[in-house]
Amino acid sequence: MVSIFLLFLECSVTMTLVAALYQVFTPLLSKRYTARTMYYGWLVVMIGFIVPFRPQLNFGLIPTPTAIQQASSSSGFSPLPIAAAIWIIGIVAVFGYQLFMHYRFIKAVNRWGEKLETSKILAILENEQKEVGVVAEVSVYQCQFITSPLLLGLHNPKILLPAMELSQDELSLIIRHELIHFRRKDILAKFIILLAMALHWYNPIVWFSSKAISLQCEISCDGETMLNTDMEQRQRYSETLIGVIRQAKPQTALATNFYCSKQSLKSRILSVMDTHVKNFGTVLVVVLTILTLGTGMAFAKDTDTRPSNGGDSGGGQQETIIDERHEQIISFG
Amino acid sequence: MKRLPDAEFQVMKAIWAYEPPVTSSMVLGHMSGEKTWPIQSVVTLLSRLVEKGFLRSEKKAKERLYYPLVSKEDYLQFETGHFVKQYHENSFISLLSTLHQDKELTDEDLDELQEWIGKRRNS
């Protein structure tokens, strides 16, 4: 268990640098590349967090922290098993909590959701399914307790609509947006992110990254919804986004909505109204993949090459090692 | 307030569907769509709901009349309020919770954005 803990700890440290780097360069990269590229780039980083194995070379850029080596090999009292146990408890807590909330949510949808089967809704749904190319059986429900449309389910999706007045145009746009989420299997991506958050619950960068990914996910979905449309459609779509939020307002007294946040709504609308052609940066995704795989080289694996800088100071030493590695990663990024 | 089991919830849903007072046969009539309930179990469920404080009952002539003490809206709020926060923040199922919260949008912000969209389009 301790060795698995150390494996993930190492992964957490090295991937944090990749994620931080990506976050820092996001504004710059967003100008060149589509939100879709940015989104897939993030998924590569998240997979890097949940799969700790890397191709190993016989050299490391930095020696493995001596404190950890000693702690894991010394026969006396070691804090590592305790740390590993706390780590596992954290995973179970985060993952369990999220699954529990999800379960409660599904139950509530089954209890309170009202299936919409008016000819108007069914006609819009059929039309949009054709447009997006979704053949699965999709149903539309209205739920009083949600304030923004959302999608549930991997195979037979349910589109949930809040209880609000929506025009035919607005309904079509919303349903198209949710169908595109379904076609792209964005729920699987959400699951990957959840796993990363559970495994690295102690790492704030994973939590912050999850917000960045959610935004890129929405922006890229907006982009696909607006593919091959004119300015008028784009304006209508932006107004739908604003309209949903306006109507949701009285209910948001309960909580602040992330997607109601000023910055994210602005980003989404700016992006919808922006018709500049951007690239799908395969290069960017490849670079991120190489960086992620390359983190395996950060620590020396061969104990013989490890310089014998003895000394059992814990925290201070580890800090300098992290700093060193920071430089290394930057230099080969 | 406590979360109601499914059967009791079905009864409450039937109660909410009518103008009070409601009789046990009305509840039975409303519930018949899903599966056939013996009247005796409906009566048992109703008395359990009285015990829990969801209903008030009155005996009038031969019939017992039921009045809801908890409104549909209040119960919905109780049952779903705590995850509205978590789930309404994403355009589809959000398994993520937010660490810190952004500034809330005001009506002026929305007006401003709308105005900007109009300008952007005409330029």
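qc> Chain A touches chain B through 64 residues (CB under 8 Å).
qc> done
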